[in-house]
Design brief:
The protein is mainly α. 74% of the residues lie in helices and 0% in strands.
Length: 220
């Protein structure tokens, strides 16, 4: 019964947060919708932050585990594994979410970009060391011309690509359908293929440095 109550609260919170935004839903509204009293909620989660943290861990723990398992398989191949292999291990588990669970993808995008620093910290903590492991795996496979600074920038650009795609999957499908027809709407596998190719090219490219010229000063 305790587990059922906990799951009912989390399911309700997940749905309401996705519908109204994290800041638009109170714990009282969640409990009323779930039909649970405040004492039980306090027992299971302790606070609103505890509820959000539990929601994050419930959904992200399986994602982290699958990503870590796939990365283990990639790293077991040593130097034979490519940048694309590392990226595929990162994106493939999430790609199924983007297509199958629009409510979850938008919810976690909200959390990552929340103006509340506590929520952003919880979101970052829920990913644990997995994201760092992927950065290190990429570092060992990028061309020698990619500097540490470029690696960090490009890795965060890669994470941003993942975020914007997750948050706007429905909009992307609508844009594709309206502009180019239904054949332009990607399925989960095609989406992963394209995001891997896009991010790999950005990570590996040799950037051209352009110096800004100071504007000419007018003569007197």
């Amino acid at each position: 019964p305790g587990r059922e109550t906990q799951d009912r609260i989390l399911d309700t919170a997940e749905r309401l947060f996705a519908e109204r935004g994290i800041d638009g839903v109170s714990v009282r509204a969640i409990l009323a919708e779930a039909g649970v009293n405040a004492a039980l909620a306090n027992y299971h989660f302790g606070s609103r932050e505890g509820l959000i943290d539990a929601l994050l861990r419930r959904r992200l723990a399986p994602l982290n585990e699958e990503r870590a398992r796939l990365l283990d398989e990639v790293e077991a191949r040593g130097k034979a594994a490519s940048v694309e292999d590392v990226l595929r291990a990162f994106f493939a588990p999430a790609g199924r979410w983007v297509v199958a669970r629009p409510d979850l993808r938008r919810l976690f995008a909200q959390m990552m970009c929340s103006p509340n620093p506590d929520i952003r910290t919880m979101h970052r903590r829920a990913f644990g060391d997995v994201v760092g492991r992927f950065a290190e795996a990429l570092a060992g496979r990028l061309p020698a011309h990619v500097t540490p600074m470029q690696l960090v920038c490009r890795f965060f650009f890669t994470l941003g690509t993942s975020l914007i795609t997750s948050a706007n999957g429905a909009e992307m499908a609508q844009f594709a359908r309206e502009r180019f027809g239904p054949e332009a709407v990607p399925d989960a596998d095609s989406l992963v293929d394209e995001i891997v190719a896009f991010c790999a090219a950005g990570l590996e490219t040799r950037a051209s440095r352009s110096r800004r010229r100071s504007p000419r000063r007018r003569g007197r």
